[in-house]
Specification:
Chains A, B: Keywords: Hydrolase. 2 copies of one chain form a homodimer. Chain A has 338 residues and is an alpha+beta fold. In chain A, 19% of the residues lie in helices and 22% in strands. The longest helix of chain A has 17 residues.
């Protein structure tokens, strides 16, 4: 089943079930007006929504055209956005670029930060920033939306609580990061609103690409129409989503509708840090990573962060080349021009 | 106007307007079923709720008994909980206890962390922890709930967006903090669910004690029935709420219903770190601070963190001795016994 939220005059938009090919959708206000409402009562709403999805495929369900640009993030606002950093290759590059070691514990204890969730950008909304000098960057990631997870849940319990899978652009302001992390309390101003893919899908929709905790398909990240990265989200993911969700639930329960992210998708290439897509490599899911590789190899970064007018696109396709989640496609714009 | 949320079978409870003396309340489902719904449309809902509050005081409004123990946190779940650390005395003690300097920037740039907001404890709910060895501690704080705040808002704009004031117990797991902060991404497991006071009040309700950005009254914190701290929340607050909210909104808008906290209320005493309440001093709003003073003065901490069975109470009284927000009163219990 594929779900989306259409923008309307309300803060939470309205839930629709979307056809597998992303061309049609059905309103489901009689089941749940919003995605959060469906997640709040998934045991009842989930099966009813699934029947609508079946009807959409067989043609028995009345439908309207679905346009990705009408979609808000599936949860336009959420009660929790907890973002992991599960691809240790990314962490290793961050550290190597500044000449530091990766602590041994990083291979057994997931990194995770609490993100802001009071308002997400729509998948086609601009990325608004007051200043290019903030070092605007995308981070292409996979995320899951969970049902209620009890405090102290096992990885197995955590995996079984995963209801939906989607993509994220975890927008980051790189030049604000060092000073902010030096203060010791983690990210705040350096992580403005994230954007999510137009469509969130149930794990069964992913077939063999979903192994219960990892999504084994390339994440396609492009910048101004050119491929920037195509790292496989199932490769080099040190901690799977079961582990990440269990980490988040160690000392407190997670409420239904909590979103847990993978961190920037990042692959090694031939055991090394990889090569830019422009040089025939797998590339990267964020500019910072390409800059770190440049720093390691050439002593200084070369690729600039995003400028006003730049457009980022993040998408994932199934084995037959069809878009699974629709595309995140965002242009960077200065504050006051939206 | 005073607002509370009564627990019911739903995740968000139901909004009531509470009489100034906290003895009676009126259901206001015809205006807004939940506090978040009221905040989503405050321009319309706020004045209508205020008329109910007037009717409660004059006796023209039908009312039922209000019992603090029936209340959930005013927002049982929220889209944002951003907690500052505005009392630099607290930060100075943290640093001094470990022999470190306070960076100069800390006096001009607020510390703030993104907290989890998917589920708050009710004001009389137990604090559940799997292990006493986590170093369970309370943090008595003041917080505000804001309306929509645009990205880049000035301190003045931020101040004018404050809709409600309330108290917090920002439960902290002290022994999980060092390893977590060393990872660089801030708090996560070390900050489980917080609890808020039974009642949230509009700033006008606070009279002269509210100066637009600070609440000038002692925060009464007790442990197992004995006074632990009575630090004045208006004293030594380096950054007022306008500054904290503007800091949070620097790179992104804040959505209505976002909660911004002050950090542990902490006063100097005669220019120094103060004395325990048991020794006749102003005392502290968290155990960690008393332990830091013990470490500075005696080389090692003496006061233990919370044990199962311990009860914490956090309250604030007006000049005539009446409770303003009702009391947070929580007993620590092991996982599985709730």
């Amino acid at each position: 089943m594929k779900l989306a939220t259409l923008k309307d005059s309300t803060r939470d938009g309205r839930l629709v079930v979307v056809s597998r090919d992303l061309t049609r959708c059905s309103e489901v206000g009689h089941i749940a007006r919003t995605l959060q409402a469906a997640l709040d009562d998934w045991a009842h709403a989930g099966p009813r929504l699934a029947r609508v999805a079946e009807g959409l495929e067989t043609g028995s369900q009345p439908a309207i055209r679905f346009h990705e640009h009408d979609a808000a993030s599936p949860l336009p606002r959420a009660y929790q956005w907890a973002d992991g950093s599960a691809y240790i290759n990314h962490v290793e590059l961050v550290r190597r670029a500044r000449g530091a070691e990766v602590p041994e514990s990083f291979y057994t204890d997931p990194l995770m930060y609490q993100g802001g969730s009071d308002g997400f950008l729509g998948p086609r909304d601009p990325i608004i920033a007051a200043d290019e000098a903030w070092g605007i960057d995308m981070e292409g990631e996979v995320a899951v939306i969970v049902d209620d997870v009890p405090m102290g849940a096992s990885e197995e319990e955590a995996r079984s609580a995963i209801r939906l899978v989607l993509l994220v652009n975890d927008v980051s302001l790189r030049n604000l990061v060092p000073a902010e992390l030096a203060k010791g309390f983690g990210f705040f101003q350096s992580k403005p609103a994230s954007a999510f893919s137009p469509v969130a899908v149930t794990p069964d929709e992913l077939g063999e690409a979903w192994d219960g905790g990892r999504l084994h398909l390339p994440l396609l990240v492009s910048l101004n129409g050119k491929t920037f990265g195509r790292a496989d989200a199932g490769t080099d993911m040190t901690f799977d989503f079961g582990r990440l969700v269990a980490h988040a639930a160690k000392t407190r329960p997670l409420a239904a509708g909590s979103i847990v992210g993978s961190g920037t998708v990042s692959n090694r290439e031939n055991g090394g840090p990889g090569r830019p897509a422009a040089a025939g490599g797998i590339g990267y899911s964020c500019i910072a990573e390409q800059r770190m590789v440049e720093t390691i190899e050439m002593g200084a970064p070369n690729t600039p962060f995003l400028a006003f007018g730049d457009t980022v696109r993040i998408e994932m396709k199934d084995k037959t080349g069809h878009s699974i989640f629709g595309a995140i496609e965002q242009t960077v714009k200065p504050l006051g021009t939206a």
